[in-house]
Amino acid sequence: MSEFHSVRRLPQYVFEQVNRLKASARAAGADIIDLGMGNPDLPTPAHIVQKLAETAARPDVHGYSASRGINGLRKAQAAYYDRRFGVKLDPNTQIVATIGSKEGFANMAQAITAPGDVILVPNPSYPIHAFGFLMAGGVIRSVPVEPGPEFFHAMERAVMHSIPKPLAVVLCYPSNPTAHVADLDFYRDVVAFARKHELFVLSDLAYSEIYFDDVPPPSILQVPGAMDVAVEFTSMSKTYSMAGWRMGFAVGNERLIAALSRVKSYLDYGAYTPIQVAATTALNGPQDCIEEMRQIYKHRRDVLVDSFGRAGWQIPAPRASMFAWVPIPDAFKPLGSLEFAKLLIEKADVAVAPGVGFGEHGDDYVRIALVENEQRIRQAARNVRRFLETADKTLHNVVPISSARR
Fold first, then answer.
1. What is the pLDDT of residues 173-210, one digit of tens each?
2. What is the pTM assigned to this prediction?
3. Which residue from 122, 131, 236 is spatially nearest to 186, judged by alpha carbons?
4. Element (H or E) spanning 202, and its range?
5. Which position has the higher pLDDT, 15 or 289?
6. d(CA 70, CA 74)
7. How far apart are the C-alpha atoms of 126 and 189, rounded to whole Å?
8. I want to staple 355 with a disulfide (CB 3.0 to 4.6 A). Which of 3, 282, 292, 365 is the partner?
């Protein structure tokens, strides 16, 4: 029997292949250091967990919740945008709470996409940025992920040559997976372009609070006129180490927010009310936990860059996000990122995310997540050093090391 239409549009999930190999190695007794999945290992701050427990003990909170998010939570998100970005939002018309930003993004795609609509998506990029629209019947046209002249050249070509004209452009800064960052000048140019060519802008700002150079990433909504064309998605997963809680937001343009709200009203009753109450406490409560988290990731980044560099694998230091976007060593590039990631599990007991999982333009890279403590990162570097030092002798029948180095 042939596959269903929607399933046919989705390739095999690259990361699942790595996950299966990782699970098999662990079942055989291997101590796999997992730097692959962006799953925070830091605990959710205690005051947030306490509020969840207190609220869950109440008998009046176990029914259906509000699909758009409870009023207090939407007001808390508005207050966050005001103090962090200086952006004023109406909690009733410009904010929707989502069950994680990934769900919000996918449902926004469902809400605004007609079959054949063209969407401009960075390549490489987080998979839902493209596949959310593919599942909704859209067509993806790639643009560069780096925020520079080539990005705008690609957008201009897309507007000139795409039939139909593109509906929307996706942004993600700090970028997952590449850790590129964007400034307000870039966002000003994007907003001007979008308004001129009647494009929507969907901005993923999930890593807004993980930055290492004392320059907080801006919001596109800080740009005058952005509210006419843009919606921004944020997440509490990384900011407060609440990944499994599935709590996010979409904010911005009222027409887009209304469309998302309408779709969600048919699909869900919102997140569990105690989670929404605890998320409200997180946004309204003390924020020193964010700075503590930021410093931990910064120290891990520094250890990663230093220890892997001394092991023989140079890692560009990311300015933001919880990821490093790392070129595959030259000798292994002929393998591609998936086979190289498999080799690291088999030969070095280290798991990374293959770059091809984020788009074909990522196949010369792997993504390394800062989700293990500093001791484990140093151990991973020692494992990688042994792997690289013995590769000539042990992998001659797997990869043509000598020819690749000439």
1. 999 999 999 999 999 999 999 999 999 999 999 999 99
2. 0.92
3. 122
4. strand 200-204
5. 289
6. 7
7. 23
8. 365
